[in-house]
Write a structure and sequence with these properties.
The protein is α/β, with parallel strands linked by helices and about 375 residues long. It is built from 18 helices and twelve strands. Helix 3 packs across helix 4. The protein binds S-adenosylmethionine. It comes from Paractinoplanes atraurantiacus.
């Protein structure tokens, strides 16, 4: 009984009423495993862990019945719950950041006497971060042929290919039978005419039979998934080969890039809790190969302009990269102002003199390849 907490103490610690805990007991959601001699409910460390999961799912807006199914799932242990909860909370934070951005823009537009369209006003309530920011994507995001060549080579002789988090389809091989998975309606709507058919789904729950594709690919998307490891396992389940273009979240990666090191340290916060490259490689059962970013990279992803720093002053360049929305408007403004000052004063050029001689840079981008 020593390790048990009384119902009153648990209620106090968790910030809920004793009545709530009684209710959870009555509906079978959280049955305390013991009673005190006086007959009061007593909660073991295991009960408290379960309560933590219940309350976290509750805060995310799940109903009590759904929560019961989630916490009773025998396939999900405490660590898996924490990972899932973390992913869902990060998703919520990203959506809040996107809403702040959209509201700021509408305030700016109104100040200039411009009315936003009903579509623009409602887009922010879409279910995905990319429903809010995706319209800005095609301005600078396109196929980088040298990276595409690496991905297509890694696909080997695969005839049928699933592209997960496909977006507008920048890296889909033209000579194979491709099926795209893309959760954002805004992104799906921007796929060019004649692009591969797309299915509205998410990586952690792919609506396909086991081993139904020769290969599955995912490009610049894994960092958006609430549970990257679960998503990569899903890819492995539905395909015999998996190819993933992603980022090594090791500290050395972001410290190596002047933009994150000197101007946007908030980037490191976005990586907290992100699985290591080794964990990602393990989830696909494969190896990681470095992908250098060419100095004139055609796809405007976050690191693309490492030798063209002025590009980051351009709002269009930033809006097509989710990092800038996810760090929030204050960090963005501060980073851009500081970069502008340093470009004008020559400080950036002085600090980054060595870059001019490089044609390609190692900035932590990796290709994970597994399977036969
Ligand atoms: C940076 S874009 C990359 C798009 C495309 N792969 C490319 O390389 O151009 C990230 C994409 O991941 C999608 N995404 C976000 N969450 C996802 C999830 N849970 N499962 C699958 N895709 C997701 C977004 O909607 C967005 O289209």
């Amino acid at each position: 009984m020593e390790e048990h907490l009384t119902v009153g103490r648990v209620a106090e610690l968790a910030g809920v009423t004793v009545r709530t805990l009684h209710h959870y007991d009555e509906i079978g959601l959280l049955r305390p495993s013991a009673r005190t001699v006086g007959g009061y409910r007593a909660y073991s460390p295991g009960d408290v862990e379960r309560l933590r999961e219940v309350l976290a799912y509750r805060r995310l807006g799940f109903g009590l019945r759904e929560i019961a199914d989630l916490v009773d799932d025998p396939a999900t242990d405490a660590v898996a719950h924490l990972r899932r909860l973390r992913g869902l909370l990060v998703e919520q934070r990203d959506q809040a950041a996107a809403m702040v951005m959209a509201i700021d823009r509408e305030l700016e537009a109104r100040a200039m006497g411009i009315r936003t369209t009903p579509e623009e006003q409602l887009r922010v309530f879409g279910p995905q971060l990319y429903d809010a920011i995706g319209a800005a994507y095609p301005a600078t995001r396109r196929t980088e042929p040298r990276i595409a060549a690496r991905i297509w080579e890694a696909l080997g002789d695969a005839r049928t290919v699933l592209n997960v988090g496909a977006g507008t389809g920048s890296y889909e091989p033209p000579d194979r039978e491709v099926t795209a998975v893309e959760p954002s309606a805004v992104m799906r709507a921007q796929r060019p005419a004649g692009a591969a058919p797309s299915v509205a789904a998410t990586a952690d729950n792919l609506p396909f039979e086991d081993q139904s594709f020769d290969a599955a690919m995912a490009v610049s998307t894994v960092h958006h998934w609430p549970d990257p490891v679960a998503g990569l396992r899903e890819m492995r389940r539905v395909a015999r080969r998996v190819v993933v273009f992603t980022y090594d979240a090791d500290e050395t990666s972001w410290r190596r890039f002047w933009l994150t090191r000197d101007y946007l340290p908030e980037f490191a916060g976005l990586l907290a809790g992100w699985p290591s490259l080794a964990e990602l490689a393990r989830a696909v059962g494969g190896r990681a190969e470095p992908v250098l970013v060419p100095w004139d990279c055609a796809d405007g992803f976050f690191e693309a302009h490492w030798r063209r720093p002025e590009a980051y002053l351009d709002e269009h360049v930033r809006r097509a990269v989710s990092v800038w929305t996810r760090v929030g408007p204050e960090a963005e403004r501060r980073a851009v102002d500081k970069l502008r000052d340093d470009l004008e004063s020559g400080r950036w050029a002085e600090r980054n003199r060595d870059l001019v001689a490089l044609d390609a840079a190692e900035l932590g981008l990796r290709l994970l390849v597994s399977g036969t």
